[in-house]
Amino acid sequence: MKKILLFIFIFLFSLSGFSQDEIKSSGSGGYGGVGLSLVFFTQQDVWNIYPILDVSNTSFVTEVTPYLGYKFNRTFALEFAPGILINRSYSKNGFYFTSKTLNIKQYYIPQNVTLVAIPLNARGKVYPFAKKAMVNEFVSGLYFGTGFGVMFVGESYDNYIYADENSQTPLGTVVSKKNQWAFNSQFFVGYEFQSRFGLGIELGYRIVPLEPEWKAAVVSDFSPNMNYFYINLKGGLGF
């Protein structure tokens, strides 16, 4: 995973060396690229398991976001933007969980934690200042938009079970897993250099409502959502 992230960073920064003088006069055409996002979960239970910076595991929560789209004119574009978020770590903070099956409240400390999230979104983008490009080319790259789709969420923990958070001896261990599909939507604002090759940055918020079942001791089974803010650095090309 680290090699993949390193390759993406090299790719993104190599694109930044191209000149903005390569702007297409028509303003329309296909485009594609890839981005790398830092992810900030906003639901407290989810943040407890997946903080933006996990000091004990020396890792960030990141999402790789390829995209492919078509710009109809200088002001409107549609794109397909899947993503993949994979987070693996040895240990995480403990939490209380009341199994719906057993109806017993116990304290769980997860080990060997794996999260896989794959959003599949169609997105619309509007460039509100693009028509003013002849006056000020810089502002033509500002955009905002929204996206909708589905999202796969899968988690797996090796949980140590205790009577409470002060107990020293585990009552047992259990492998807890859950895979589910959820609706998701996103709202975002960003900036792209209006060239055939170039960098962009996007700030957004993804809404991922969940339906807690309280059957598996993983956060996606008892949290009401997995909403998150993201900061996305991306690079792409037009064709």
The name CATH uses for the topology is: Porin
Helix and strand sequence:
HEHEEEEEEEEEEHE
Question: Helix segment count?
Answer: 3
The major β-sheet equals: 8 strands, antiparallel, barrel
Structural class, by secondary structure, is mainly beta
Number of strands: 12
Q: Under the CATH scheme, which class?
A: Mainly Beta
Radius of gyration, whole Å: 21 Å
Report how far apart the termini are: 29 Å
The strand order across the widest sheet is: 1-4-5-8-9-10-11-12
Q: Residue share in helices?
A: 10-25%
What coarse outline follows from CA principal-axis ratios?
Answer: elongated
Mean pLDDT: 86
What is the domain total for the residues? Answer: 1
Beta-strand content bin: over 45%
Given as residue ranges, the uncertain stretches (5+ residues, pLDDT < 50) are: 15-25
- What's the architecture in CATH terms? Beta Barrel
